[in-house]
Design goal:
This protein is of the alpha+beta class. It is built from nine helices and eight strands. Helix 1 (18-30) packs across helix 3.
């Protein structure tokens, strides 16, 4: 079968969208197992404002396109076209597979219980006010989060999130493999501390943690005043000259 031209927006009377053009460009100009850069992609499609998003759309259709996160040998601006997925230029093949979004009442309840009826992004509970000038009461929903597993595969998992945190988070994803690598790098004491926080599902802030959080919100002159107060006190164990 002769492939349509990626440089044409139309193929006869059938409209060819930017995602299809991106797929054809990868096949005919880049080739499988070859590297391309973001600059090369944008130069090839100067008329498409969101061509990076169209490349991401191809991943949902089985195309494997690695980034530096997937392949450490790649530079940040590089991507590797590894393998073709669905033949999106064929009518009916461009449709993305449906993810299971609908949950039964029992399934939703199970997710809420597992997440302690708290937004896993900000920690707020249902009906609670945000306390930052926003008097709106929090509403909890079930969000679908893409998780990059340690074996390189992807799956969608459900998590509790409030309406405010969920706004604009449709593309949010979690790199579980990278997180597990950070856990492996912890010292034995750090691992015990983290395990305690996980068991309690909370971390109680020490007074100095709260002070640090407040300090970070201060304007420059106020921050200097705090620093000067600490300098005036001197460090423990300092001897007078």
């Amino acid at each position: 079968m002769t492939l349509p031209s990626w440089q044409e927006k139309t193929d006869g009377k059938r409209k060819v969208g930017s995602m299809v053009r991106a797929a054809l460009w990868l096949l005919t100009e880049v080739g499988e197992d070859n590297i391309f850069t973001k600059a090369e992609l944008r130069a090839a499609f100067p008329d498409v404002a969101q061509i990076d998003r169209r490349i991401r759309d191809l991943r949902d259709r089985g195309w494997r396109i690695d980034t530096s996160r997937d392949d450490p040998s790649l530079k940040q601006e590089e991507q590797r076209f590894v393998a073709q997925g669905a033949a999106v230029w064929i009518p009916g093949q461009a449709k993305a597979p449906k993810h299971k979004n609908s949950l039964t009442a029992a399934q939703r309840q199970k997710v809420f219980e597992a997440d302690s009826y708290l937004c896993r992004s900000c920690g707020i509970s249902a009906g609670e006010e945000y306390g930052d000038g926003d008097l709106t009461q929090a509403v909890l929903n079930i969000a679908r989060r893409k998780v990059l597993l340690a074996d390189g595969l992807e799956e969608y998992q459900f998590v509790t999130e409030c309406k405010r945190c969920g706004s604009g988070s449709a593309d949010r994803e979690v790199n579980l493999g990278a997180l597990l690598e950070l856990v492996e790098d912890l010292s034995p004491m750090e691992r015990r501390i983290l395990a305690g926080w996980i068991a309690a599902d909370q971390r109680t802030l020490e007074p100095i943690d709260k002070l640090w959080g407040l300090y970070r919100t201060l304007p420059e002159e106020a921050r200097k005043a705090v620093a000067e107060a600490l300098d005036d006190d001197g460090m423990p164990g300092d001897a007078d000259n």
